[in-house]
Amino acid sequence: MAIQWFPGHMLETKEFLRQMIPSVDVVLEVLDARLPISSANPLLDKICKSVPRVKVLNKKDLADPNATTQWLTYFNEKFHGQCVAINGTNKTETWKTVDDAVKTINRNKARKARVMVAGIPNTGKSTIMNSLAGKKIAKTGNTPAITRHQQRAGLKNKIDVYDTPGILWPILENQSGACRLAASGAISDTAMDYAEVAHFTADYLLERYEAQLRERYRLKDPFPSTANELIEAIGTRRGCLKKGGILNWQKASEVLIRELRSGKIGRISLEFPRDHLTPSPE
């Protein structure tokens, strides 16, 4: 099944962003450090093109540090240093990100700086807001699109930060990117097929993270060579069996995706810069 998810409130958020942008000084575009390209909303390129923007790779504690280093190099070269990687629960890192962003803008120092936090669902925008405020002002959780209304935090140094509901784009044409989004938790479970997303994810993990799979699931040789074999091995290890010892593929698929999202398999990145570079013509 094709993955598509654009509930009605996202259309409202899109219009809200269009209206608010003219009064904003700088935008913090929060991306998932595990999939920075797939979690970048192309709508923001259009809506925020007139406003300075900083790309924030959040959840770096869940991402492959080698991949994150490559992404920082990639984005900082492309956007002239306007990219940072943080853990949204770290108040020092989140505050420095906002403070550094404010220092780059030209404004009348007599008024407050207005910073907008934007991005797709479940990239940790609300967590960043709570860290900045030093208290819980926004709902957080593993379910995407928890935030439905704008949140505001008044910070020191005359800075106001505005959180916005997560927004995707109406048509997910790149289904590989959609599978990455689904695997990361950015798409509602009701809009995805766990077995399909798990198959996609298993293929990817077999190619790049064999050591982590061996350690997490205590897999020995002969090591699984296909996605189906890997999901079957994981399901067997986790007791995802029906009567007669038949594998419950749905439960086994859910185990893989949920343990990936939580970081239990290890620090995994679902894409590297090289995955998106166009090969040079021969």
Task: Give a description of the structure.
The chain is elongated. It has two domains: 156 residues, Rossmann fold; 83 residues, Conserved Hypothetical Protein Ylqf, Chain: A, domain 2 (Orthogonal Bundle). Helix 6 crosses helix 7 and helix 7 crosses helix 9. Strand 5 and strand 6 form a beta hairpin. The protein is of the alpha/beta class. The model has no long low-confidence stretch (mean pLDDT 90). The longest helix is centred in the last third of the chain and has 15 residues. It has a six-stranded mixed beta sheet with strand order 3-2-1-4-6-5, sandwiched between helices. The chain contains ten helices and six strands; from the N terminus they run αβαβαβαβαββααααα.
